[in-house]
Amino acid sequence: MNLPIIYHPDYVAPLPEGHRFPMSKFQRLYELLLTDSVAQTEQFHTPVRPPQELIELVHTSDYVQAYFGGTLDASSQRRIGLPWSPALVNRTCVAVGGTILTAKLALERGLACNTAGGTHHAFPSYGSGFCIFNDLAIASRVLQKLGLVQKILIVDLDVHQGDGTAFIFQDDDSVFTFSMHCEVNFPGTKQKSDLDVPLAVGMEDDIYLQTLANYLSDLLSEVKPDLVLYDAGVDPHIGDRLGKLALTDTGIFRREMQVLSTCVAAGYPVGCVIGGGYAEDMKSLVFCHSLLHRAASQVYQHYRL
């Protein structure tokens, strides 16, 4: 049995001409995984759009209704940073469905990967930083509501703090939020995660990986989660225009192997999302995102999941 991967066909349609947010990377990632034989077509699972009440386990009804209807005010739209359209509404919801499915498959198989997700800047009543609905938070609440899990650990290694996620779970002991991010970067106002590890600008591979090693195993032992949700943002990469850290391709791959092998070897299932990535070179960006799936495939086979 092979690593389950979630594919988002609704992400094929482009954003308006001239918009720089790389929505096409999702389709290109899918194609690259097939071209490089990282995955076969039978490994891919297509998510469905979840019902509105599941999104409202995290987000306020007023916000959800306003976004669905395209009636958010101009300042709220600017804070999100993406032009509203019915197609984007659908893609946003399907992406949430993808992370829910990823989490369920991770519980069944021990490890599963999304080809989208990681919208950790979305707060209950507003979106921010290209994030509209918080898929990590919604997936957590859905699995808890279904009685599939009680305790969740969110490992967020996107270069930006997972501020929306931290805020949503700030008074909730059932979800432990761990964010390791560049200290001098968006968001300007940080929230309080259960564990924040701010990193110096320009940090390179070895010290980054050692810093991660200083926390991850101990966290697993302390939290003992039923599920780990891993936000594998690649914006810590040296080539990222929004990152300010200096990880190489090799460093990103080593990070993915470190996170996944540490969790799986200790018996904790992991659901992965790709998180942020904003390199100008689309080919390099997509390859960098694919490192998560390459590492996951190796770990999946090694541990015979």
Q: Which descriptors would you attach to this protein?
A:
Arginase, Chain A, alpha/beta, about 300 residues, eight-stranded parallel beta sheet
Uncertain stretches: 12-22
Give the total of domains: 1
Radius of gyration: 17 Å
By DSSP, the count of extended strands is 8
Q: Identify the overall geometry.
A: globular
Total number of helical segments?
11
Structural class comes to alpha/beta
User: Quaternary arrangement of the chains shown?
Assistant: single chain
Descriptive account of the structure:
This is Histone deacetylase. One of its GO terms (biological process) is epigenetic regulation of gene expression. Keywords: Hydrolase. The chain has helices at 25-35, 52-55, 61-69, 74-80, 86-109, 135-145, 163-168, 205-213, 216-223, 249-265, 282-302; strands at residues 5-6, 44-45, 111-114, 152-156, 175-182, 195-199, 227-231, 270-273. The protein has 305 residues and is α/β, with parallel strands linked by helices. It has one domain (5-11, 20-302): Histone deacetylase domain (Arginase, Chain A, 3-Layer(aba) Sandwich). Strands 2-1-3-8-7-4-5-6 form an eight-stranded parallel β-sheet, with helices on both faces. α7 (163-168) links the parallel β4 and β5. It is globular and about 50 Å long. The N and C termini lie close together (8 Å). Residues 12-22 have low confidence and may be disordered.
Summarize the structure.
This protein is of the alpha/beta class and 305 residues long. Helices cover 42% and strands 11% of the residues.
List the helices and strands and how they pair.
Layout: E1 5-6, H1 25-35, E2 44-45, H2 52-55, H3 61-69, H4 74-80, H5 86-109, E3 111-114, H6 135-145, E4 152-156, H7 163-168, E5 175-182, E6 195-199, H8 205-213, H9 216-223, E7 227-231, H10 249-265, E8 270-273, H11 282-302
Parallel strand pairs: 1-2, 1-3, 3-8, 4-5, 4-7, 5-6, 7-8
Pfam families: Hist_deacetyl (PF00850)
Domain Histone deacetylase: 19-281
Family: Belongs to the histone deacetylase family.
